Amino acid sequence: MIAAAKIRGADRRAIIHHIQRKYNLLIGERTAELIKITIGSAYPGNEIQTMEIKGRDLVAGVPNTIEISDEEIREALMEPVRQVVESVRIALERTPPKPLPVLAGGGAILAPTSTFCSMKKRGRLSRWRTIR
User: Fold this and answer.
1) pTM assigned to the model
2) How far apart are CA 1 and CA 101, in angstroms?
């Protein structure tokens, strides 16, 4: 391994904060992870995806169900995705040109993170391998 960076839990925290701020709904880490895996993405797909989630209404204190879209989750994940892209950029600056970049962990499942990174940093990021 030539260079590595870790950004732990920022994606789940961003989703939790977004749902809390927009809907006054408290969700847990498991629900945030499920949202990320099910409809989370770093780049828009061909069709809009939605998901029903349950949480506790922060105003009334009762359980509530809402429907969210991949578009709003993508918006919530923009800062963690920017952090990943910046970490990749820094790691690539420290490496010789031959090694193949690898994304691993939760950020790697934000399909298609590789497309997002390639579009952000044309040139050296033309080939990607993702570990899931």
Assistant:
1) 0.71
2) 10
